[in-house]
């Protein structure tokens, strides 16, 4: 099955030549990173990666505070 458009093919050779049509015509280009996509839907899905990204949120800080809560909980259960 073609993972790009979901078409099914009886032979692997058909699938291979079909995939080429996708890789050769990357008509939808991401304006932010320059990646090319054969389908507009793919590009839409991809641009979400950029729009959802929040560079000002520190992931490490978030995780460490979470870890702190967990260790605190563990300490509480241990003291009881
Ligand atoms: Zn396809
Ligand atoms: Zn991009």
From TrEMBL:
Keyword terms: Metal-binding, Nucleus, Repeat, Zinc, Zinc-finger
GO MF annotations in UniProt: DNA-binding transcription factor activity, RNA polymerase II-specific; protein-macromolecule adaptor activity; RNA polymerase II transcription regulatory region sequence-specific DNA binding; zinc ion binding
A Pfam family per the record: zf-C2H2
Highest taxon listed in the record's lineage: Eukaryota
Protein name: C2H2-type domain-containing protein
Keyword Phosphoprotein recorded: no
This protein's record includes keyword Cytoplasm: no
GO cellular component, one term: nucleus
Domain C2H2-type: residue ranges: 1-27, 28-55
Compartment(s): Nucleus
